[in-house]
Design a protein that fits this description.
With about 550 residues, the chain is α/β, with parallel strands linked by helices. The chain has helices at about 5-15, 20-25, 30-35, 55-65, 70-75, 110-130, 155-160, 180-185, 205-225, 230-235, 240-250, 275-280, 280-300, 310-320, 340-350, 385-390, 410-430, 430-435, 445-450, 465-485, 495-510, 525-535; strands at about 35-40, 40-45, 105, 105-110, 140-145, 170-175, 195-200, 235-240, 255, 325-330, 370-375, 395-400, 455-460. Helix 1 (about 5-15) runs antiparallel to helix 4, helix 7 packs antiparallel against helix 15 (about 340-350) and helix 21 packs across helix 22. It starts with a helix and ends with a helix. The structure holds glucose-6-phosphate. The site of glucose-6-phosphate has 15 residues, from loops.
Length: about 550
Amino acid sequence: MNLEAWNEVAAEIAEIKKTNLRELFAEDPARAGRFTVEAAGWTLDYSKNLITPKLMKLLIAFAEAGELQKWIDAMFSGEKINETENRAVLHTALRNKPERPVLVDGKDVMPGVKEVLDRMAAFSDNVRTGKWLGHTGKRIKYIVNIGIGGSDLGPCMATMALKNFSRRSLAMHFVSNVDSTHLAETLRQVKADQTLFIIESKTFTTQETMTNAESARDWLVKQMGGDASAVAKHFVAVSTNAEKVREFGIDTENMFGFWDWVGGRYSLPSAVGLPVMLSISPRNFQKMLRGYYKMDRHFQTAPFNRNLPVIMGLLGILYNNGFDAQTYAVLPYDQYLARLPAYLQQLDMESNGKSVDRDGNPVNCQTGPVLWGEAGTNGQHAFYQLIHQGTKMVPADFIGFCKTHNPIGDHHDKLMANFFAQTEALAFGKTAAECRRESVPEKLVPHKTFKGNHPTNTLLADDLTPETFGALIALYEHKVFTQGILWNIFSFDQWGVQLGKVLATKVLDELTSEAAPSLAHDSSTNSLITHYRAVLGRK
Ligand code: G6Q
């Protein structure tokens, strides 16, 4: 990263370390308003961060020194900023307005985007209205999505997030793990003649997905009395690899394509979102895309000091690089968003888990943090203790909604009371003097004192809708982008994932070979493989 600009920031951080959130709030009655911004249905209150107006100005100067705007424009305009794979990065085109052209190698990609969305919509309508029937003439009642990583986490998380907009007569299942238990337990819940399998794989070569897909196909054919022609009405594909889809036995008429400029973990608004569209309807899917689009436009055009993704990106850098925070927590106070932390884990850690810079040199700074989280209030009864009183700094994003989809008694007020109370307690803690005023026995005072000064962001929207959901995901995408640019790393490749795909293939042969394999790993791996073979009675 740009160390010259960062040094200015670092000098101001040293000043901030002499004060705390109690003092900062006491000094400035207008602090909450000063550090609150809004966009695309979301309010971000970032006043409970370890910042002053001066520090924010320096952070923004740091973003300018890193030429962030130039890179934002480069991404939106289709430049090949994913250099190690020689690809454009255009998930933003997926939710762009059809009439706004986006060029890749001089060709407008928008007609193709629209064409796939239209086909997805027609297909979804057919399934939802019962025009598309299974092989024996029955309506589809179960959808089983088979994919992994970017071809699973997004649609699975979004289907859950938007469940209240779903057609509940269509049961949605997601199989990702190559562990046969995942597939077996799912198949126990569905009936073959009413099940539609969606095989999602950008490459259509991923070991886990292809293994699950083949086993699902075998199961279906067996359930259909050995009639292989049943596959046509029960399998569709989402992929960029038409040849492999055809080889698998799926008619490419029933394949929904996307493009190499859509990264797996950014692919939810592409055809990868097909299960979501089937569940919530094409109309609601379009609304989700509108939400994404609004946040995209905001990111592209808002000045940095009003720009939600830029501000959140800079705050993350502040703690990661200025306070040595190793992790950050995402805490959605909404059960529908229970899978959001898992989704964001991939988005953030796969994108910014890098240790060489854009020139191939070792980075000169800490890069992506460890992201973790859990839906509130469950986390409060588990790990919040460490955030409040442990020795580590864990900055956290609190995400909540003013309204609930499921009003029962006073549940929602209680949920939100916890939501607001936690960030207050984290920021301001409880002093020894306050404990004593409450007659806490002297011996317990150190244990019941909370030093506070734990930074949090509060993200609040009126309600969870396809629109606010889309905007939220785009917000995190662009936050991750901002950080990657300023750390001077490439956020859109994932060579570590590719490595895993190759490694397992070699070991698989050694586990399954008829003859005893000659093992040439380290002594630990050799003996583990030997043990496994022995338990299974292999030589
Ligand atoms: C995402 C990653 C990775 C990928 C999976 C599945 O950005 O590249 O998670 O999505 O490995 O790959 P396929 O879609 O090719 O099966």
